[in-house]
Amino acid sequence: MKEKKLKAAGYVLFAVYLILLVWIIVFKMDPWTIYRYRRYVCLIPFGSLFDKGYRLDYAVRDIVYNILVFIPFGIYISMLFKRMKPAAAAAVMLTVSAVFESVQYVFSVGTTDVTDLITNTLGGIIGIVSYRLLGKLNRNSSRIDIIILAAAAFVSLVLSVQMTAVIIYFLQ
Question: For the whole model, what pTM was predicted?
Fold first, then answer.
């Protein structure tokens, strides 16, 4: 019974994470992003690092943020779908990232960038490996899941409050 409640909590928090992920990636944490029409595609991996018209610190920040924002995705996939092979989980990361990049292109928000595909997938793989390493260090997977879900609940709450505050600010 405890295992079922834990898994249910995991699915709820994963859904909250996905909503926050859409808000972060598609809407750039700005509800009015959809009104900024800009369609740009970058097919050169890590091209922004070498673009003289783009600040290097912004390029590095974007790469680091993309990796960080997808680490929880890998953890959730590993925790909720324990039988999924790591390669299949990485394919899920790549597919979801490709969907986000396609949505950005279709709705002209942000830049559709192959670097994002690479870094988002890398972040997910880091999450997968991290969860598996934690499992090897501590044989009690329920205990690890509880700690991860508690941390996820806290982070989701903080981001949800921030998201609500931004939306309220823009609606005034």
Answer: 0.82
